[in-house]
Amino acid sequence: MDSVKSSALTPSKNKLARTITKVLHIRALTGIAPVHGTQKVKPQEKISDDCTASKSTGSQSESFDSVDEEFQNRVQLQALLAKLFASISSVKAAYAQLQYAQSPYDAEGIQDADHYVVSELKVLSELKQCYLKKQFDPSPETTMLLAEIQEQKSLVGTYDTMGKRLESQARLKGSEITFLREKIEEIKKQNRLLEKSLDQSGPIAVTGDLHLSGVNASHFIKVLGHTIKSVRSFVRMMVDEMKSAGWDVDAAATEVEPDTFYWHNDHRCFALETFVFREMFDSFHQLNFSLPNESLPEKRKQKQFFFARFMELKLRKTKDFLSQNPRSTFAKFCRFKYLRLIHPKMESSLFGNLDQRSLISSGQFPDTTFFSTFAEMARWVWLLHSLAYSIEPEASIFQVRKGSRFSEVYMESVIDEMYLSPDSDPVVAFTVIPGFMIGKTTIQSRVYLSQ
After folding, report:
1. Are 313 and 321 in contact (CB under 8 A)?
2. What is the DSSP letter of 268?
3. Is beta strand 445-450 parallel, antiparallel or unpaired with respect to 427-433?
4. What gap in Å lies between CA 288 and CA 282, rounded to an integer?
5. Residues 6+ apart with CB under 8 A from 174
6. Helix%, strand%, coil% for the chain, nearest 5
7. Which residue, 429, 141, 101, 412, is CA-closest to 257?
8. CA distance 379 to 438
9. Per the database entry, which stretches of residues form a coiled coil (predicted)?
10. 431 with 281: CB under 8 angstroms?
11. Distance between terminal CA atoms of the chain?
12. Phi, psi at residue 293, to the nearest 5°?
């Protein structure tokens, strides 16, 4: 606030000094203020000569009088213009005060500002009448000086009001930001409670009574939504475990996606998400889904085969299914993906040992929260793969290359538009969630956009 005032008054002081100099110059020209307050006295012997000379130059004196009168009129007109500009500045200051009083609403302030505006408009009207009737101020130099002072005071008042208004708006925006942050935290808590209740309620019948002939893209999209939620739940748990073990999560994200510009530090979690999605969906386009020794039926029976696999697992709890079917294809899939996704050094750092890895390698499954969350994620990925080869036409997976230009047809940004400038041309930094094609239906991939 102080900086605004000081920057506004510095040029005003210079302008005021120039006005005072101009007024003094006018006084000197019109003979109002003699130099040094003294007058020169002519010698006695020259008085008669001067009188004679004045008679011979009478016509010249008349011309000088007309020039002085014209100069005086010009100065008076300048004084009127100075008063006009000063009054206009006062109107601007009054209008700024009126706007400030309106938000937040201040009835008394609005009334005072209204009276201020009306009084200054009356002054403008009076100045107009003075100009039309040629009623000029007899002391133009004093009027110009006072008008300049009034104009500077009005400018200072305007800047002061604008500063108060900006401060008020800043406080209002700060309150809105605080409210939105609290609302976001509340929504996050509600989401965590919902996810917890969903996990405790067991598997969800996302398809109801379904037959092979009725499977379509909408069922695939519904299962994909649950798959994405399960992956993100596992990523959150993994990040929490990493933080508890003293990991530098930002450094881990940089290791996954190096040389990436992030709009916000919190966005580095997307790099960890893309790592998990990339490992879990690796070989999704293959029928055996990373299991080379799996036997598959002939082509004409493949859709029935994958649909039966989908129906077998969709209503079962993951923990119960693995304990009852430790040698099933899905159990092999869980072992294979866990050993690939969780590096031995990472497991040893998080849990202090390799006990879970040893159990899984020996054909058993640990009864831990970490593995249960992983197994639930693996179950949804397995269901999505089974459904992809059950529908007609089959679903195909795709991923966007780094550096590709953004396309709303095939991509969806995982960050808000507020981070992206309207004039910028963002490119894909990495694919977080792959996209899918089912005939002419495109399920957009979700990408992180960067510079």
Report:
1. yes
2. G
3. antiparallel
4. 11
5. none
6. 70, 5, 25
7. 429
8. 22
9. none
10. no
11. 36
12. -90, 5
User: 433 - beta bridge partners?
Assistant: 446
The pLDDT value recorded for residue 153 is: 81
Distances (CA, A) of 330 to 175, 333, 338: 52, 5, 12
Predicted model pTM: 0.56
**Tokens for 57?**
């130059």
Output the average pLDDT for the chain: 78
Q: What is the pLDDT of residues 173-208, one digit of tens each?
A: 888 888 888 888 888 777 777 666 655 544 444 545
CA 58 – CA 62 distance, rounded (Å): 7
Strand pairing of 411-413 and 445-450? parallel
Residue from 313, 362, 309 nearest 339 by CA = 362
Residues in the chain: 451
Cβ-in-10-Å burial (0-12, 13-18, 19+) of 345 comes to exposed
Query: What is the rounded distance in angstroms from the CA atom of residue 6 to the CA atom of residue 182?
Result: 39
Residue 405 DSSP class: B
